[in-house]
């Protein structure tokens, strides 16, 4: 049986059941409840026939994105890069890699997106640069003790001849976090720090010139009309000033996450985000339009993340705890309640995500050992996410119900994790396979007609079941579920903002009330249960007879419930 609980009471999960956000004065800024579509540029749409997606392809695909009903796009890095980590190794922060186009094409993307009512968010990578960046090349040439080397973390090695790394840290993508260089005279010399790969040397943010440089980068792109920045590794930038040994040096490598407390989440990073917020606010003061800072903040708890979204720091930070939660009602209840209490409690809104370019596709992640149930759960999770207060990000292909491509041959894998470890456990190529647009065989409309080029990662034949053409023509597709959910989200008053009131439910069911009486219920179990509302739902993730909620499904109803 479903029933509203009194405000402030608790349930069997021992969590606060009613969570209210801090009131927002005046008109809410666009980002607070925006739904943003993440475009992984090299896998979105290829306009040149070289098998790699590009900015002209993004521009061609903008009407498709707008038709879905989102509020903006986030573009993965398109800057000049040797592509050791597909653009997250930047050699020039103020230009476009010829693989993807040029600054003129980028300007067209921004202009046409804005004409369609879409915001444009670009990725920025301040934690590290490419080993091909002029600064790093200058550092190698300048030698020990130089101002050029001070921009990075160069240090003498340990041991009699400096043959051992300066500390015991391991890199997140595998192997030691230090590499040794040859000095200008040809001798083996100092070591430099790279918490990802040797091709991505870490910048030293304790040197003022680094911060000054990135402020110029921000202004370069803001002057070209971007509406905000997604900040890569936003809990990074600073290391413990003494670079001491870690008590668990392999933690980052073992988990593929930012765990080492000496390398991440240092207090000084918050001053950087205050400075960046001031830059963005100075542009907003000119025309009244907020420029967004949304951070990739991988920290242990929602309370830790809340420190990054205080009123003078980042506007938002991705909330990864729901993405990583197992398909379990109690766990989802806990992470949602924690986020609304700790993050929304700062005055920000929670930024919900189910997937991105670094994660196993949602359909596959939720399938476990139960096969087709993964698609049912992914559809239910989509409705749950869109019913929550705050913002949401949708990774390209999620709206098509794409599963992970798990059987890519070793010889086509490009992820530096695989190159450095030989292990496929955390390889990310499977979620980055180019999108299928049309047709019955590869390249499925991804690359332009008549091209002999093949997509940069091979598309499986079963992609034919997930093309955008097929999805748009099938009213029961993932695409229509997302589109209908986004349309209702816009139409229903207060859905993106405002309170959430939990309903009392069986242990394997979550239900809550939003806005002007929207009820969302999710059945995490395998068996059907009575629905909280007897009427047919406004929207359901699958077949949902009146009065029942099938297993591994979600639905929305409109209902005016009395206040608790």
Description:
With 564 residues, the chain is an alpha/beta fold. Helix content is 26%, strand content 14%. It contains 15 helices and 20 strands. An eight-stranded parallel β-barrel has the order 3-4-5-9-10-11-12-13. Strands 1, 2, 14, 15, 16, 18 and 20 form a seven-stranded antiparallel sheet that branches. A three-stranded antiparallel sheet has the order 6-8-7, with no helix packed on it. A hairpin with a 3-residue loop joins strand 15 and strand 16. Helix 1 packs parallel to helix 2, helix 5 runs parallel beside helix 7 and helix 12 runs parallel beside helix 15. The protein is globular and about 80 Å long. It starts with a strand and ends in a 6-residue tail after the last strand. The N terminus is likely disordered.
Determine the fraction of residues in helical runs and give it as a percent range: 25-40%
Report the principal-axis shape: globular
Mean pLDDT, nearest integer?
A: 92
Separate helix tally: 15
What does this entry show, briefly?
The protein has 564 residues and is α/β, with parallel strands linked by helices. Helix content is 26%, strand content 14%.
How is this fold's topology laid out?
Layout: E1 3-4, E2 18-19, E3 35-39, H1 55-68, E4 72-75, H2 103-115, E5 119-124, H3 134-142, H4 147-150, E6 154-155, E7 178-182, E8 188-193, H5 208-222, E9 228-231, H6 251-255, H7 269-287, E10 292-295, H8 302-306, E11 316-319, H9 321-324, H10 329-342, E12 351-353, H11 362-367, H12 373-387, E13 391-395, H13 416-421, H14 468-473, H15 478-491, E14 500-504, E15 509-514, E16 518-523, E17 529-530, E18 539-540, E19 548-549, E20 553-558
Parallel strand pairs: 3-4, 3-13, 4-5, 5-9, 9-10, 10-11, 11-12, 12-13
Antiparallel strand pairs: 1-14, 2-14, 6-8, 7-8, 14-15, 15-16, 16-20, 17-19, 18-20
